[in-house]
Write a structure and sequence with these properties.
homotrimer, 347 residues, alpha/beta, Udp-n-acetylmuramoylalanyl-d-glutamate--2,6- Diaminopimelate Ligase, Chain: A, domain 1, UDP N-Acetylglucosamine Acyltransferase, domain 1, 3 domains, eleven-stranded parallel sheet, acyltransferase (chains A, B, C), Hexapep (chains A, B, C), lipid metabolism (chains A, B, C)
Chain lengths: 347, 347, 347
């Protein structure tokens, strides 16, 4: 990690392949939101709703849609997708330097197939038969189990645990505390207690996947647990054995997917969505926060469960009535019938 | 970890103490589900529902109930409990070899009471006064705190943290990222903020317990947190201080049990069940996914909370009505009274 | 960690700055609840409800409110806040000794600004530019990233991971498995998949904060994620990027706060509360277990969501009716209108 990186407006425009308006030599020290950016900072306007903040901002340059830029007199980078350009700029300003290639003397590397360009941190353990591809970083204290394969240009952060027989493709980021390949939850009842079902499958993770801190991806019972390409998972994602997740699906923090469920591609799950086991979710399914998905979803769309939040006093009353909801329904049906009878009587 | 293990049908029959039908010398390379088993694989039919898959399967041998086997012409192992036999077979095919006994040179073992047959992985730390029983494996990077005792034939996976004063019996499996004996959440309010209550109890874990990755079992405030024999917990199980869990209880992923609650034996909790503190759950209680248990359950049975999943548009309308459920109830009562009055008037 | 600590009643009275009644030389070996305390143990009566337990207890001394002590003939410590005095006494009896200052030879300490009084455990990694204040303990296997600062008298337990650029103030306790400063979940959609938004902010944690095992506090996108002074969080707390938590707020296990939400001071969240992103919670807001906070809360009070628990058979019926709740509401409205029309007709 070095000091802060700075760029001139013209340098940024070149790096991001964007046109700019204004003084190209303007020095930019970092990125900040419009509302809090001081002089020297780059900002961005991703949503026209916040246009008022643009005029009020002290940012020294702003990433703007060309249509907005027409009427803007300050320094700006012109982008048809300002939010995407901000994302690209964030990579340039990131002060985190990639560790130098090499194996730290305190690391225990039994594996032989580790590329020379790999950076293996202090106190790492790389077990026999593991393979680590070119340009990959293994953070301090991480453990890579026997015969597991990690592709090129991955970043496995500190204290990650990867069990044996796990396969991770290229450009994957795995955050600290994640456990990949722990045993799926499989037991057969027997007269002498639970008989463990050894989990003989592995885990396969695609390209450009990111997995948030303290997540768990369990190994399959017989076949592999599979995470497709371009899947992004926030912290505490729980993927049980034999789950399959399609390309590009995104899961916010603490989503939990039970065993053998198949999830399509391009889905978005808000925080703490739960999914029961052995079901199928179609492509392009979007789930609101804390929903429990209790059955297969066969068509794209947005799905939800739960109740809204309210003051506890009112909630108690409503929750008590929920316990009588079926009864209430029947009473309404009975009222309807009574009224019909009355109408008849009167008719 | 060695290469793949293979068995002949006759060898498997002997190892599992089962009869077989067919060619005993058939070589079996692994286990696979009926639908995807290739030649060379063992499969099993645990549920008569899937009998069609049996005829379609390319498996080279199948574990079958004798009643099914009567009409089956292929190779099979005869078992009255095919699923249990599959579980037992899975242990035979598991390629994960137990690490060799011995202390890795990079491990820091201050404790003196470590059996010669124990395997202590790279970069482990075993603090003063800890005891590790015969045949136990401590994975790389795991930490065992002062005066903690681990029994015989346990498997403590990589990067597990066991605090001081924890007691773990025999044949226990603890997956990576688990923390046993962290402080329970105890604080007394004071005029200068929260006064920490030091957690002076420990944790006691019974025989044949398995705890999934990244779980937490907190130490007791004054007495111990207790997990009985044959308890199985999936990933992210959260057991708060002074909880007691009875023998043989099973918890799927992400169950959370608040402080001082006592759970019976033989219970099954589906995924992400929550339990409030200071209550009692009877034996043989079964809880559906994501239920929040808000009060003691004194009789065996199945319990639930929550709402079903639906399309978000409909859900929003229903959830909005939930906020008026008590009002709705009262309006129905009022309608009923009105109708009775009318009846009287008309009577 | 040494053996058990013991105190005479008089010594305890002096240490806790309390008056006592009875025999000052009474030896006390530990603390226990009234119901299970044996001779030799100190207990406490924090709630007058449990007064019956006081008479039945075998405790050798009890912390009592002076009004209760008047009619108590045994040994006691007099406190106007017995629960707070118990908390203070628990610190005295804690057998966990602070590790001795010094850097374990197996630790990898690249940083230069580590106070001589710091205790750095086996296999720790302290990266370049990190600062560790006087009296702080870093447990075995913990990793402190580049340029992160940890204040004085903190206790960072084993296998904690602190990323680069994190700032932790004084007297902070962080339990095992916690990850501080992992990347917030920020991605911009692009035609070629998700473009990662590098998380350029840090994390700032105030004084006297405690964070439970396996929690995650993500770094900010552009500005810092902030946890105020005296905040206490139980295990599995998930704090997303750019969240701000006010002083003295308490969160029980598994609370999840989504990005950019601002939470006031003096709030208490029961277990597994969820909070959506980009909202504001006022000071002194109290939330019941498992509530999902879906919108800003602008005034103090207690808030809830969800449904009560019931037997699964009844629950299924009620949950099915929930799916028709809006329809039911409309039918009730229609009944009301019909009755009004009838009344008119009859009028």
């Amino acid at each position: 990690m070095s000091g802060r990186k700075t760029f001139s407006l013209a340098e940024l425009a070149q790096a991001l392949e964007l046109e700019f308006q204004g003084e190209g030599e303007t020095r930019l020290l970092g990125i900040a939101p419009l509302a809090t950016a001081n002089a020297g900072y780059l900002s961005f306007l991703s949503n026209i709703k916040f246009k008022a903040a643009l005029q009020a901002s002290s940012a020294s340059a702003v990433i703007l849609h060309p249509e907005i830029a027409v009427s803007y007199t300050g320094n700006c980078l012109l982008s048809f997708k300002p939010y995407l350009s901000y994302a690209q700029a964030s990579a340039l300003f990131d002060p985190l330097e990639k560790p130098r290639a090499g194996v730290h003397p305190s690391a225990v590397v039994v594996a032989e197939d580790v590329d020379d360009s790999v950076a293996i941190g202090a106190n790492c353990v790389i077990e026999q038969g593991a393979q680590i591809g070119a340009g990959t970083v293994i953070g301090p204290g991480a453990v890579v189990g026997a015969n597991s394969r990690i592709g090129t240009n991955c970043f496995i952060h500190a204290n990650v645990t990867i069990y044996h027989g796990v396969s991770i493709a290229d450009d994957v980021i795995i955050h600290s505390g994640v456990v990949i390949g722990g045993d799926g939850f499989g037991f057969a009842p027997s007269s002498s207690g639970w008989q463990k079902i050894h989990q003989l499958g592995g885990v396969r993770i695609g390209n450009r996947v990111e997995i948030g801190a303290n997540s768990c991806v369990d190994r399959g019972a017989l076949e592999d647990t599979v995470i497709g390409n371009d899947v992004i998972c926030d912290d505490y994602t729980m993927i049980a054995h034999n789950v399959v997740i399609g390309d590009g699906t995104a899961m916010a923090a603490a989503c939990q997917v039970a065993g053998s469920t198949v999830i399509g591609s391009g889905c978005t799950f808000a925080g703490n969505v739960g999914v029961v086991g052995h079901i199928t979710i179609a492509d392009q399914v979007h789930i609101t926060a804390r929903t429990l998905i209790t059955k297969s979803i066969l068509k794209p769309g947005s799905y939800s469960s739960g109740t809204g939040m309210m003051e506890t006093g009112l909630w108690r009353k409503n929750a008590a009535r929920f316990a009588k909801l079926d009864e209430l329904y029947r009473r309404v049906v009975s009222l309807e019938q009574q009224l019909k009878i009355q109408e008849k009587d009167e008719g």
